[in-house]
Design goal:
Largest sheet: 7 strands, parallel
Distance between the termini: 48 Å
Number of helices: 17
Shape: globular
Helix content: 40-55%
Strand content: 5-15%
Number of strands: 14
């Protein structure tokens, strides 16, 4: 389909300079980024998570920003037909397209190119994350805590997917909202379940927040249930947005991306300044995922120590208990923040060490240079393991990672012998369980342990 559409919601009129940046096809321009992310959004519902395949399939797709006196319009050329019904773009897809444009423009012009945000400091980074969320209209100061962040794999079994829906349903019955990475699998299921529960409870303003970043958006289009989409500039700011915005976290079975999120979360919660932080964390899945969580638990205790185990609770095959426990936990969060006069809508009190905020570019050199040994502070090891898993995610699904692997071969990771053995077993179990790719796709490892 080729058409011209107007953005929806509160997208501001763009300046001529901003429009020129979006049109710029040079390396320094934003056009290629907008094109890749827009194509993924327009391909919502596609069963491929290979961004290279998507770009090759729609190699003649293009998007152009047209400046008009009364605002801007988007000219789409050879867009996927599935984004349209009887020649009109599906409204949810149009909203997501508008959100992508809004955040790309705002981050570049107001965050990355503005002196008031010093992204080399922790304070500056946290402030930037706050402003991006506020610009998107995601911060709701008048609402009590009730956002449950749901993490888990995009490549899960049908039984695991149905379980995530059950958990989301029981969370929704308890008037809790859902925030995820906005892709398929364990990110879509909880929203689907909560959507039905909110309808039963006659909750008219249920929230289904999707927080992503360009590399993930380009690989995994937002699922249609997302009614608030925010695109963060990189994975580190995306993860910070989750923990600053959420009031509780549920982790479903997943692969390296889920392990990355777990290590990020525990690395933060183990910081001494966060010892009294109220943030309920639950690992859960159906009965056949018990072994998965046992492996995760053993790896975490070996690498981060027994203290890590105290920061989460494992509940297997009991969606009702998960929802009840989370509801009680978030009630405690409400009491904690009232007692400390903290904001409900953004967790300023949480301390995030700088190594969890610094952008990690998973090049072959950077991956080979990661310090994967236990003779370092726990938070440093957690940060380096998180980076290793982040690199594997990039090599699995992100366009720049896929191209790097294609050009230079698998990433190499170096670790001390026992940690190497345990890491190999963990990653091997992910591969054996089909957690690296969508079902039916053969997985070719993008990493090598040496």
């Amino acid at each position: 389909m080729s058409t011209i559409v107007s953005p929806l919601r509160s997208l501001e009129v763009l300046s001529q300079h901003e429009v020129n940046r979006l049109r710029d096809t040079s390396k320094a321009g934003l056009h290629d980024l907008l094109r890749r992310c827009s194509l993924a959004v327009l391909s919502s519902g596609s069963m491929t998570d290979d961004s290279l395949v998507l770009m090759e399939t729609y190699h003649d797709f293009d998007i152009e920003v047209i400046q008009q006196d009364r605002g801007i319009r988007l000219k789409l050329t050879n867009a996927p037909a599935q984004a349209f019904v009887d020649g009109k773009m599906i409204r949810g897809i149009r909203e997501h397209l508008s959100s992508v444009l809004r955040d790309i423009v705002y981050v570049y012009n107001e965050i990355q190119q503005h002196r008031r945000f010093d992204l080399t400091t922790g304070e500056g980074t946290t402030n930037a994350v706050f402003h991006i969320l506020r610009k998107a209209g995601t911060l709701k100061p008048g609402r009590d805590p009730g956002i449950v962040v749901c993490w888990g794999g995009h490549s899960i079994t049908r039984e695991e997917y149905e379980y995530t829906k059950d958990v989301g349903y029981h969370l929704g019955l308890r008037e809790l909202d859902i925030c995820t990475g906005c892709g398929p699998g364990a990110m879509k299921g909880p929203m689907k379940g909560a959507n039905l529960a909110h309808a039963k409870q006659r909750i008219p303003d249920g929230r289904y927040l999707g927080i992503s970043e360009p590399g993930i958006i380009a690989a995994e289009a937002p699922n249609p249930l997302v009614n608030e989409l925010v695109v963060m500039p990189d994975i580190e700011k995306r993860l910070e947005a989750f923990v600053r915005l959420g009031h509780g976290i549920v982790v479903f079975p997943g692969g390296v991306g889920t392990a990355e999120e777990i290590l990020y979360l525990l690395g933060i919660l183990l910081h001494p300044d966060n010892a009294d932080m109220a943030l309920p964390v639950i690992f859960t899945g159906p009965a056949n995922s018990a072994d998965y969580f046992q492996r995760i638990d053993e790896f975490l205790v070996y690498t981060l120590g027994e203290a890590a185990r105290s920061k989460y609770r494992i509940i297997v095959d009991n969606p009702v208990e998960v929802a009840r426990t989370m509801r009680k936990g978030i009630d405690s969060v409400t009491e904690f923040r009232r007692a400390h006069q903290d904001a409900f809508h953004y967790n300023w009190r949480l301390t995030i060490a700088r190594e969890f905020q610094e952008t990690f570019e998973p090049t072959h050199t950077a991956m080979a240079g990661l310090a994967l040994h236990r003779s370092q502070p726990v938070h440093d090891l957690a940060a380096n393991l998180r980076r290793a898993f982040s690199g594997i995610v990039a090599g699995n699904v992100k366009e720049h990672g896929l191209r790097a692997i294609e050009a230079h071969g698998p990433f190499q990771l170096h670790a001390e012998p026992e940690l190497m053995r345990r890491l190999d077993e963990l990653l091997g179990s992910f591969v054996a369980q089909g957690r690296m790719k969508l079902p039916g796709q053969e997985y070719v490892p993008c990493y090598r342990l040496v």
